[in-house]
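Recall that a protein's primary structure is simply its ordered list of amino acids. Everything else, from secondary elements to tertiary packing, is in principle encoded there. The following example makes that idea concrete.
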Amino acid sequence: MNAVTTIAGPSMARFEQERELVGTLLRMGDIAACKTARAIVGPEHFSDATMARLFHLVCTASETGLAGYPLTQAVIMDLRPDENVLAEVKLTPASLVAHCVAWSGPAAWLANMARLVRFDWLNARLDLAAELGDLVAVQEIGAEMEGLRRAHMTLNTDVE
């Protein structure tokens, strides 16, 4: 029997959204993109530890003034000693970065990608709150999700 485990269903969809966001940030490689994303989402909102780590590294490197190729190289160098992340994905740092960039999305969708990552995180919290019968939390989370949905449906006029 084959021992390979694959991600399927909602977990795979969340992973793909997170990978697309991180890949887009890497491809754009500038501080403005990271500021836009960080205003909506943080590493704690990611379901995949590898994508959360990459998100953190990209935004931290961009805040030091790195952009473009130097930013990508800094992220690769910061990933090298991170054996736990690399062992999980079974890729070299450069391959992991290239993989994310290959699955990046359009720059104009960056804020919406970040909203989707946060929305999915909220959805998981909503499920837990409903399971626990915490109606106050259900209402608060639902209101935040509605705000994200409305923002997602609004055209971004500040992006060319």
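DSSP finds eight helices and no strands in the chain. The CA atoms of residues 37 and 114 lie 6 Å apart.
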